[in-house]
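To illustrate the input format used throughout this study, we show a single complete record. The first block contains the structure-token representation of the backbone; no residue identities are included at this stage. The design step must infer an amino acid for every position from geometry alone.
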């Protein structure tokens, strides 16, 4: 299963928007995905990613799906946010 974050926009910045994105993913995209399946989170096309948005989406996805992979994380905004989540939210990916 691949989740393309660009479907939620290229500037992903607020906690409420992240919460809404996660609820949409849970209802439509990841609803029938097993907890042991590989889930790829693709950052292609994302220009800005903030820790608040990512904490509402990436953190719960990584907690729910143990085989989570991050793809196309070259963007400096994405890298900085993932570093912050790893330090403060105990993100394991």
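Output of the design step:
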């Amino acid at each position: 299963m691949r989740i393309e974050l660009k479907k939620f926009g290229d500037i992903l910045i607020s906690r409420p928007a992240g919460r809404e994105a996660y609820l949409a993913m849970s209802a439509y995209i990841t609803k029938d995905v097993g907890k042991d399946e590989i889930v790829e989170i693709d950052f292609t096309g994302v220009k800005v990613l903030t820790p608040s948005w990512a904490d509402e989406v990436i953190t719960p996805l990584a907690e729910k799906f143990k085989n989570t992979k991050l793809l196309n994380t070259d963007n400096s905004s994405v890298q900085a946010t993932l570093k912050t989540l790893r330090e403060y939210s105990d993100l394991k990916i």
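Structural context for interpreting the output: The mean pLDDT is 94. Residues 42 and 71 are 5 Å apart (CA to CA).
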